[in-house]
Automatic annotation (TrEMBL):
This protein's name: Orotidine 5'-phosphate decarboxylase
GO MF entry, a single one: orotidine-5'-phosphate decarboxylase activity
EC top class named in words: lyase
Superkingdom field: Bacteria
Biological pathway: Pyrimidine metabolism; UMP biosynthesis via de novo pathway; UMP from orotate: step 2/2
NCBIfam families: pyrF_sub2
UniProtKB keywords: Decarboxylase, Lyase, Pyrimidine biosynthesis
GO BP, one annotated term: 'de novo' UMP biosynthetic process
Species in which this protein is naturally found: Rubripirellula lacrimiformis
């Protein structure tokens, strides 16, 4: 089954459009995991990141549509961190969760092929279901990813309108009256046009931030065949009303990511008093329920 159809099936099966972002950070790890790290070696932290993420995966499996490990935090630890990333991806897939690896990769076509093969190819050592990709090297940089998606029924999410305040400097620029982000959306629509699955969606998803609800509505209309990954919910200020326009009339077409507000829920004021550090996984569970409930439209 194509990635787009698998995502639709996961949303229907779980009744959830939540994507749990796995963004481990040393300083914010719950005390029981942080305090068990002996010394300051990358190996020790990598083991802690694996344990932290895998325990979260076990709690959210079957209750959310997908997870999104953020490669940056694993890369920070060097080679040991990359091994941990591989273990977390494998654990999530074994738990039945779809995995969006957040690497925001891309390069000239010949190198893009290597990135695509690495994360999504038939022989991929990572075995991810999908990958976030930057569009700014143009059409020939995206084509290798789309081809690899075709081979392994994988998916990508192309940055269209990012959640950060500074993204507009380039993305909102207009040429002949069209914004750069809309030009990216046009390219995505073209790639998907011959690849739409039963769900009505293709392998080339897009990223639009919850922090830009107007542009999200605009992009939903311009991108009928593209799953939209919506980051920026929770910690960056986006709320349920901001993401509603991302969905189609069936409640499909978008997944909403939250990282810090779920994985570090034990530190949020509304959960802090209720759950002690030892119950950090109960806080993850409660934050997941809370987000699922908010996003039932
Ligand atoms: O591609 C992404 O996931 C992404 C795109 C974007 O525009 N904004 C954005 O925040 N993200 C990622 O989504 C996650 C957001 O984390 P929280 O703000 O903690 O929920 C981080 O891993 C970001 O790198």
């Amino acid at each position: 089954m194509s990635f787009a159809d698998r995502l639709a099936a996961a949303v229907k099966a779980t009744g959830s459009v939540t994507c749990v972002g796995l963004d481990p950070r040393k300083a914010q790890l719950p005390a029981p995991i942080r305090d068990a790290v002996s010394g300051d070696s990358p190996d020790a932290w990598a083991a802690a990141y694996t344990q932290f993420c895998n325990e979260i995966i076990d709690v959210v499996a079957g209750r959310v549509a997908c997870v999104k490990p953020q490669a940056a935090f694993f890369e920070q630890l060097g080679p040991a961190g990359m091994v941990a990333l591989g273990e977390v991806i494998a654990h999530a897939r074994q738990a039945g969760l779809l995995v969006i690896t957040d690497g925001k990769r891309n390069d000239i076509g010949s190198t893009a092929t290597a990135y695509a093969d690495a994360y999504l190819g038939q022989q991929s050592p990572w075995g991810s279901d999908s990958l976030t990709v930057s569009p700014y090297l143009g059409r020939d940089s995206l084509e290798p990813f789309v081809e690899v998606c075709d081979q392994r029924e994988a998916g990508i999410f192309v940055l269209v309108k990012t959640s950060n305040p500074g993204g507009g400097l380039l993305q909102d620029r207009k040429t002949d009256g069209q914004t750069v982000y809309s030009a990216v959306a046009e390219l995505v629509t073209e790639f998907n046009s011959t690849r739409l699955g039963q769900s009505g969606y293709g392998p080339v998803g897009t990223v639009v931030g919850a922090t830009y609800p107007e542009q999200l509505a605009e992009m939903r209309a311009e991108l009928p065949g593209s799953w939209i990954l919506i980051p920026g919910f929770g910690a960056q200020g986006g709320g349920a009303a901001d993401v509603q326009a991302g969905f189609d009339e069936r409640g499909l077409g978008a997944v909403v990511n939250s990282s810090r507000h779920i994985i570090f829920a034990h530190a949020r004021p509304e959960f802090k008093d209720k759950f002690g550090d030892a119950q950090w996984l109960d806080a993850v569970s409660a934050a997941t329920d809370d987000m699922n409930a908010q996003l039932r439209f």
